[in-house]
């Protein structure tokens, strides 16, 4: 969606290393926003994005305008069942319907052989995987790790909207996830979650929306980390009006099992 940072550029570099031609879409997609202010205030920096894309060897920048993108599109409805009834899907009504709509259109328009996504949007990646299966898109999906600022904050275009005070506070989200990971090696999930919730409660500027310990394959909350092959810890929180998400993928061995 543009306002590119090193997280996005890591995807571009990986794409360029593996392909002859790389296309990057920059499109602040109205149909995936459940909050009008979030859409209005989303950072838009197309000129700067174009320069950064040229520097990493991107071959094509596809930056349609919304009226053109949606000129002939009716209301499409997707059903991702339990994959979308949690976390982002539960808190952003209609969000994944909008994501699935625009990703389908982008795949048809660009016809990529590979498509690169970031782990930061873990649930989005699971939804897109399901979409590719459901609609038999002939492409390979690739997911790359989260690139962080030096203080641990996950890079995000929305970070630009933080005030200096909020920006200083924002790495607490990553610290909470790390605390949760450490706690999971020692106590049960409920206690571990409570420790992370209590940690964040000490910072009144941070309003936690959800904190989940999930099976990274099904995205469903789990009651014991021994249950599943791959665990993820995920959160969403507001700093003022700015909503940020972050997650860690944990291997069972990393949590002492
Ligand atoms: N810090 C990051 N590291 C790696 N990939 C990232 C990072 N941030 C975003 N991405 C990925 O880049 C792609 C484009 O994301 P998008 O344009 O929505 O950016 P964003 O920075 O996540 O914005 P926001 O968090 O404000 O929604 C997505 O696949 C996303 O997961
Ligand atoms: C998948 C996506 C391109 C849909 O607009 C967007 O949500 C993003 O960039 O993560
Ligand atoms: N970065 C994922 C899309 C969104 O937040 O709308």
From TrEMBL:
Residues at which ATP binds: 1-8, 118-121, 147, 155-158
Catalytic residues (positions): 8 (proton donor)
Binding locations of beta-alanine: 32
Full protein name: Pantothenate synthetase
Subunit structure: Homodimer.
Source organism phylogeny: Bacteria, Pseudomonadati, Bacteroidota, Cytophagia, Cytophagales
EC primary class: ligase
UniProt similarity note: Belongs to the pantothenate synthetase family.
NCBIfam families for this protein: panC
EC number(s) reported in the record: 6.3.2.1
Function: Catalyzes the condensation of pantoate with beta-alanine in an ATP-dependent reaction via a pantoyl-adenylate intermediate.
Note: The reaction proceeds by a bi uni uni bi ping pong mechanism.
Record keywords, A-Z: ATP-binding, Cytoplasm, Ligase, Nucleotide-binding, Pantothenate biosynthesis
Localization in the cell: Cytoplasm
Principal subcellular localisation of the protein: cytoplasm
Binding annotation for (R)-pantoate: 32, 124
A GO MF label: ligase activity
Catalytic activity: (R)-pantoate + beta-alanine + ATP = (R)-pantothenate + AMP + diphosphate + H(+)
């Amino acid at each position: 969606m543009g306002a590119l940072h090193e997280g996005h550029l890591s995807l571009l570099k990986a794409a360029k290393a593996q392909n002859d031609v790389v296309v990057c879409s920059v499109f602040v997609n109205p149909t995936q926003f459940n909050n009008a202010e979030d859409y209005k205030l989303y950072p838009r920096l197309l000129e700067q994005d174009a320069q950064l894309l040229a520097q990493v060897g991107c071959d094509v920048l596809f930056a349609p305008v919304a009226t053109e993108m949606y000129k002939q599109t009716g209301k499409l409805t997707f059903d991702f069942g339990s994959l979308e009834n949690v976390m982002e899907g539960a808190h952003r009504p209609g969000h994944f319907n909008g994501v699935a709509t625009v990703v389908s259109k982008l795949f048809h328009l660009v016809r990529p052989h590979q498509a690169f996504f970031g782990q930061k949007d873990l649930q989005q990646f699971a939804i897109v995987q399901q979409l590719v299966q459901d609609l038999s898109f002939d492409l390979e999906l690739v997911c790359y790790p989260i690139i962080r600022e030096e203080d641990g904050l996950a890079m995000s275009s929305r970070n630009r909207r933080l005030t200096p005070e909020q920006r200083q506070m924002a790495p607490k989200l990553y610290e909470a996830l790390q605390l949760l990971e450490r706690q999971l090696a020692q106590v049960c999930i409920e206690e571990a979650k409570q420790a992370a919730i209590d940690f964040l409660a000490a910072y009144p500027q941070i309003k936690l929306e959800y904190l989940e310990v999930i099976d990274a394959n099904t995205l469903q909350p789990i009651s014991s980390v021994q249950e599943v092959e791959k665990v993820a810890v995920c959160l969403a929180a507001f700093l003022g009006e700015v909503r940020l998400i972050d997650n860690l993928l944990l291997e069972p061995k990393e949590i002492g099992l």
